[in-house]
Design goal:
This protein is α/β, with parallel strands linked by helices. It contains 14 helices and 11 strands. The protein folds into 2 domains: 50-171 and 261-300, Bacterial extracellular solute-binding protein, family 7 (D-Maltodextrin-Binding Protein, domain 2, 3-Layer(aba) Sandwich); 178-258 and 316-376, Periplasmic binding protein-like II (D-Maltodextrin-Binding Protein, domain 2, 3-Layer(aba) Sandwich), CATH 3.40.190.10. The chain has a 6-stranded mixed β-sheet. Strands 2-1-3-10-4 form a 5-stranded mixed β-sheet. β6 (194-196), α7 and β7 form a beta-alpha-beta unit. The radius of gyration is 24 Å and the shape is globular. The chain binds calcium ion.
Length: 378
């Protein structure tokens, strides 16, 4: 009955439109039937077309969850589109060097890319808010900010002049604080410490008297093992264990105050995006959200087994950072944001929005997630 009524209303609407001499406004040029032909018989050019795209990433080949997730996304898009949108994925260095992903997509050399926005901090300092903010939002909070709190609009505005449309595609959840060769008892232990730590976290470490060092994933183990650096952060137990960091340092600290919910990004070249018919655009959007969920689930499910192995088999000493030190680092982090905001209006705009959303999100979390966690541990 409901369906019959629905069909009746559609029919009535069409009759009314015909009677008025109007045509329904097409959503885009691609869905519009050529004049004088019935819509059903028209095969719009874009809908019949097969798109063969290239995608580059900042990740090593076979990098678990990260590169794995991107390949999963490409496969989903292929299946959901019935092969009309095929994306060939290249790991970092296979087609362009990892950190040229942004430029390659921006210039249209390839249609898509995957990485983390804080890699582009040199070009766009405010991009860092879309990856990881020390003492900022966790994965759940970032998701809320991006999808329901205006964050994604700010992100897209920031990339607009670079011919790029960003989409959230993955989140690592809270990372670990890192590997150290000595016990960390307070802020003084960070003075003079050479640590591999990227982004805003590195700036906070510098304020605390340490020296942030930038190293690609492949260089970390050797640098730590040879003492070129005193400490490093990487991702979490699942990835850190695979890198062998337990053989180069003894102390493994938590929490990852510097990366509380690292967001990953899908980059799409604006012109390429506009060439897609609406159904393929919807597929890309939905597949990116589905993969985001899968990636976070993988991190959440795999990390604890890896941590248990590090503890029991590798005899790693797992410690929590001293609360007094974290309080100080939080204070220094705010100083970093205020200084950066004073230098760059775009940074200030995103910072103000992020800060306002986090204040509300923290207030809600205090009586939801945190209160529940407290109840659980009573
Ligand atoms: Ca990290």
């Amino acid at each position: 009955m409901k369906q019959t009524m629905h069909a009746f209303f559609i029919l009535m609407s069409l009759l009314l439109l015909t009677a008025c001499g109007d045509k329904p406004a097409p959503a885009t040029g691609a869905t519009q039937a050529p004049a004088g032909q019935p819509a059903a018989a028209a095969a719009p050019a874009a809908a019949a077309k097969t798109f063969e795209w290239k995608m580059v990433t900042t990740w090593p080949p076979n990098f678990p969850i990260f590169q794995e997730g991107v390949e999963r996304f490409a496969k989903d898009v292929d299946t959901m589109s019935g092969g009309r949108l095929q994306i060939k994925v290249y790991a970092g260095g296979e087609l362009v060097p990892p950190l040229q992903t942004f430029d390659a997509v921006s210039q249209g050399t390839v249609e898509m890319g995957h990485g983390a926005a804080y890699y582009w901090a040199g070009k766009i300092p405010a991009a860092q808010f879309f990856t990881a903010v020390p003492f900022g939002l966790n994965a759940q909070g970032i998701n809320a900010w991006l999808l329901s709190g205006g964050g994604l609009e700010l992100w897209r505005e920031l990339y607009k002049d670079h011919n790029l449309i960003p989409f959230p595609l993955g989140n690592t959840g809270v990372q670990m604080g890192g590997w150290f060769n000595k016990e960390i008892k307070g802020l003084d232990d960070l003075k003079g410490l050479k640590m591999r730590i990227p982004g805003l976290g590195g700036k906070v470490l510098a304020k605390a008297g340490g020296t942030p060092v930038l190293l690609a994933g492949g260089e970390i183990y050797t640098a730590l093992e040879r003492g070129t650096i005193d400490a490093t952060e990487w991702v979490g137990p699942y990835h850190d264990e695979r890198l062998g960091l337990q053989r180069a340092a003894k102390f493994y600290y938590y929490p990852g105050w510097h990366e509380p919910g690292t967001e990953l990004e899908l980059l799409v070249n604006t012109k390429a995006w506009e060439s897609l018919p609406p159904d393929l655009q919807a597929i890309v959007n939905s597949a990116s959200q589905a993969t985001s969920l899968w990636m976070l689930a993988e991190f959440e499910a795999r990390n604890i087994d890896a941590l248990n192995k590090l503890r029991s088999e590798d005899k790693v000493i797992v410690r929590e950072f001293p609360p007094a030190m974290l309080r100080e680092l939080k204070r220094l982090a705010t100083e970093v944001y205020e200084e950066e905001a004073a230098k760059d209006p775009a940074f200030k705009k995103v910072y103000d929005a992020f800060k306002a959303f986090q204040a509300k999100n923290d207030a809600w979390n205090n009586i939801s997630e945190q209160a529940y966690r407290k109840a659980l541990n009573l």
